[in-house]
Amino acid sequence: MAAVTLSEVARAAGVSPATASRVLNGSSRIPGADIAERVRAAAAALGYIANAQAQALARSSSGLLGLIVHDIADPYFSSIARGVQSAARELGKTLLLICTEGTPAEERLAVEAFTSRRTDAIVLAGSRSSRPEDDADNAALLRESERYLANGGRLVLVGHDLIDSRADAGRSPDDRSTRTADGSSDRSGDAVGFARVDAPSSHLVIDIPNETLAVDLAQSLARLGHQRFAVIAGPEGLMTSDLRLAGFQRGLRNAGLAPAEVTRAAFNRDGGFKAGLSLEAGVRAAASEGSRLCIFAVNDRMAMGVVAALRQQGLEAPTSYTVAGFDDIPTLEDFFPGLTTVRLPLEDIGRTAAEAALIDAHRVPVGGGVVLRDSTGSPA
Fold it and tell me: Bridge partners of 322?
């Protein structure tokens, strides 16, 4: 059965299609009450369904909020999404979700899709990549974001600003900066060369203090008496991972300890599992010398993979080694042993991002703190 058209509604109501459109699509130029009632009655009798895109044109607002995350199955992103959804519901907006594999190429396609659907605002949550092979895709993502902003959209990024690889051509990776969609840039980070910059009102970054909190974690573990450390980090160039790694190493330096050995792996549970298997020899060597290796995985899912891998080899935390993660994802409520981690208010971050995108774009500090649990125990 063919859909009822606006022209059919207008004919049944005895008005022009333009008048019917003004009534049904939410235009501010609504005709008299008797005419409007006649149009609505005709639409109801015929079973007419309004065209959302036509309504968006009439109202200059689609009522849509777009959310882009790397993986909704990851508790980190699902917690942020829950906060975004809660705020969108309270504000009477419909949330559209796109999951990517975390690449700038897929994120660019997601922004393009939301632009074509005239979403009022977009929240982009996830790490940026500073790998040289992503330069072209980073530039394309920036261009698409600029196009969206130029057409009246509002953009909020959770974690990191966009990277302008075009402006950084010819510079070393350690000297690269982030850049806002309006072209301004800054470079004030001291560890791995990633900077936070102020953005125009339509474009905001919700900072997550990854590096600072990782410093706090390392120093907390040092105060417990731990002295031998290993870090399981994500792929080089993944900014969230690199900042956490840099902060942890700086915290060890501040405590007068040697830097941790670093193992790179996929930024997920499976990556942690594989890296955990590779650390078995180091764990056993430390135990043979009467100490325990303290392993920092740069996110909780990686830490959970580490525990699973070493348990498979007959090694348990905290008796054979100690382990810490980062994020304090909800899954940890049922994880044994209780995992030492850094708590981030993930749901609040999502709510803040949505409210900034839909109501008032302004800088909001994100808190967090170290949570010591059984997995790091007391050093031997």
Answer: 294
Which two three-digit tokens encode residue 38?
Answer: 């006649």
Convert the pLDDT of each residue in 177-199 to its tens digit: 333 333 333 333 333 323 233 34
How many other C-beta atoms can be found within 10 angstroms of the C-beta atom of residue 316? Answer: 13
**In the prediction, which pLDDT does 201 show?**
45
Phi then psi dihedrals of residue 313, to 5 deg: -95, 10
Q: Domains for the chain: give ranges and CATH numbers.
A: 6-59 (1.10.260), 64-208 (3.40.50.2300), 211-343 (3.40.50.2300)
User: What is the share, in percent, of the chain residues with pLDDT greater than 70?
Assistant: 82
Task: Put residue 183 in one of left, alpha, beta given phi > 0 → left and psi -120 to 50 → alpha.
Answer: left
CB atoms within 10 A of CB 282: 16
pLDDT, one tens digit per residue, over 10-49 is 888 888 877 877 777 666 566 777 888 888 888 888 877 7
Q: Residue 12 belongs to what H/E stretch?
A: helix 6-13
b/e code 33-59 from CB counts within 10 Å (16+ = b): eebbebbbebbeeeebeebeeebbbbe
The number of helices, as runs of H, and strands, as runs of E, in the chain is 13, 13
Q: Which ranges of 151-238 would DSSP assign to H, the alpha helix?
A: 210-223
Residue 379 has pLDDT above 70, yes or no: no
- Give the model's pLDDT for residue 31: 76
Higher-confidence residue: 305 or 192? 305
Tell me the C-alpha to C-alpha distance, in Å, between residue 349 and each of 73, 101, 216, 337, 361: 18, 21, 20, 27, 14
Looking at every residue in the chain, the average pLDDT score rounds to 85
Q: Which amino acid is at 37?
A: E
Pairing status of strand 121-125 against strand 185-186? unpaired
Tokens of 256: 């007068």
